[in-house]
Amino acid sequence: MSKRGKTHRQFTAEYKAAAVQRVREELLRGRSQSDVARALGLNNGMLSRWRREADEATPASAEAPSESLEAEVRRLRREVETLRQERDFAKKAAAYFARDVP
């Protein structure tokens, strides 16, 4: 079977690095790598290989999140919990005031 019509695409190192960075950001937002690959028009396996190569090229110490980022994550998680409690209270208050009072 011939592969006529298919061209071999070559990507620059900058493009690969940008794609890997986008995957990392989207994973934090809850999207899958497959979604990102599809959006970029890439094969998921190729994107996996680029991530693996980038991980091997980056020293482990450079990947560790800084203390300020960890502190911000903790602060944001507390804020999310507070907002959830406020939302739940508002729901209950709305239900209480919406019921028929004779």
From TrEMBL:
Record InterPro entries: Homeodomain-like_sf, RD_transcriptional_regulator, Transposase_8
SUPFAM superfamilies: Homeodomain-like
Keyword flag S-adenosyl-L-methionine: no
Coiled coil: 66-93
Cross-referenced Pfam families: HTH_Tnp_1
Gene3D superfamilies hit by this protein: Homeodomain-like
Domain of life: Bacteria
GO BP field: DNA transposition
Gene Ontology molecular function terms on file: DNA binding; transposase activity
Keywords: Coiled coil
Name the record gives this protein: Transposase
